[in-house]
């Protein structure tokens, strides 16, 4: 599931990528077909059109200057963005608007944790993008997530969340652990079990008041994300109670909580942000978009103290990602589909990556200089273009279910209870399953 990016990420500094070669502004001029401006559709006075884009968190289009650039390319079109900070607030409103057929934007952001439910229950309310975008341009599993059984595509892929591990080199050094990213990768090469062993090593000499990881629930999500089968099976049956990946993630989270390896902070909460600023946690499970969160909340005082290495184990993982869909009830469906095609083209996805670090789902972006040669100065110039591209190419195709987000969030809450309140694992699991069963029926 894509985690909501905070409002602070929209107005404050984000992680800046260092790249070589062509600039994003030069690339923006490509990826836009010559007939895009020849639409017969008009809206408003003098044929001028205002396209509305509703999204949540931080999609990065404004930060990358894409809406302004689109207006330069199409002077008759102005794009306005309506952003909701929390996706949990955004989604119920979207469902209400779809049910009523009113209040919808021309383009709507769609969260990966909701996409299966929308494909199954609301597909007829979205324009079919299968003839607008080339689904083969995206990583193989991405567009399948937004495709109905009869081949209708309700969303074009934006970002994905290939996994890595972010770690505080200053804290590692004080605890007597290696700081070189290759040496750290070797320590966790055996998987998340090795990650916990590294945590026990850290704890022996940990600086006072610090913890090995921010949250056991974050580790749980990373573990589950590395498996194709998570909360549902191929038939659509909920299997979270017996899912091997859920069981592995839960047991590891319970172990981390029991051994006091975690600070027990719900990610993106105010205490979590403060802990980053105060450098009290040594590692964070790090899907591509997380680097921006760390740099924003840890602040300038911690620049150069963090680094990025590959995720534990050899199995690639994806955590997060979104889509852009075009509701049929929108006022400018034809122009909206053209905008979606342009925003999800390689050049524009590369520009978003450069601006805020959201990793492209369009494979064509991976060989562009702004992605291929990207490093993060904040993270000791970690070669994130290479790290994330290598990971993205081998991520397994995940089986999605209609209530993935609700299941994940409920389990995460109970893991936080184990960390913060000392709830016993069996009691936490019972509470989680009772809550989930009420939601999924």
Notes on the structure:
The chain is α/β, with parallel strands linked by helices. The chain is 40% helix and 13% strand. The chain has 18 helices and 9 strands. The protein has helices spanning 8-11, 24-28, 66-73, 87-100, 112-121, 169-174, 181-187, 192-204, 216-225, 244-258, 270-278, 290-298, 333-343, 346-356, 369-372, 384-392, 404-420, 425-440, and strands at 49-56, 77-84, 107-111, 156-168, 211-213, 281-287, 306-310, 318-325, 359-360. Strands 1, 2, 3, 4, 5, 6, 7, 8 and 9 form a 9-stranded mixed sheet that branches. Helix 9 runs antiparallel to helix 10, helix 9 (216-225) packs antiparallel against helix 17 and helix 17 packs antiparallel against helix 18. The longest helix has 17 residues, at 404-420. The protein is globular. The two termini are 21 Å apart. The model is unreliable at 1-14 and 20-42 (pLDDT under 50).
Beta strand count: 9
Count of helical regions? 18
Radius of gyration: 21 Å
State the helicity in percent bands.
40-55%
Low-confidence stretches: 1-14, 20-42
Helix/strand-derived category reads: alpha/beta
Q: What is the H/E string?
A: HHEHEHEHEHHHEHHHEHEEHHEHHHH
Distance N to C terminus: 21 Å
* Sheet having the most strands: 9 strands, mixed
Mean pLDDT across the residues is 90
> How much of the sequence is in beta strands?
5-15%
Seen as an oligomer or otherwise, the chain set is: single chain
Shape: globular
